[in-house]
Structures are given as C-alpha cells and as structure tokens.
Amino acid sequence: MVAPSDDGLPVSPKWLVAAMALGVEGLLLSYDLRLGLAGSAVLGVVVAVWLYVALRYGSLSGTPSERKAMVARVRAQESNRQSAARGSGAEQGADPSQRP
Fold it and tell me: Does the predicted TM-score (pTM) go above 0.70?
C-alpha cells in the first residue's frame, strides 16, 4: 500500500531534517572549528548529491511526480474494488452458500 503524502505535519519532513542538520552543524562549529569545517564539507557534498538527484529525476524540475500518479491510480483502483464489492454483495443476497 502506498503511504499517504499528507501526514498532518505543517512542513515537509525533508525540511525538518535539513533544519536539524543545520543545527548540528552549528553545534559542531561552536565546539571545534576544524571539526565544523569537515562537517560542513560533508553536508555540502550531501546537498550537492541531493540537488543533482532532485533535478535529474524530476523532484525540482517541474515534471509531474510518478509517485502522485501512482497514488491516484491506486486510489482509483481501490474505489473501483469497493464499488464492485458493494454491487456484488447486493446482487448475491445474504446466503454465502449461494456464492460461486
């Protein structure tokens, strides 16, 4: 089953992770300058890779997301199955022994 994208958070979880990473980076810089600079380099590489993947595979390029299309398709299939189950249950009656 596809996880819902709206989980009730006011912001996307990726922004919460980014804020935590910047907070940890600030703590590292205040503790030790060399350690903070090393952490900044690692964080910079991670951000560069994320930007490359996001731009390359459509997250930031403006193309419609495949995930959203898949979620819509799954929801349509689920509603079709529910309506078919309701329709077949009404036609066959209450006796389960008469079902094929």
Answer: no
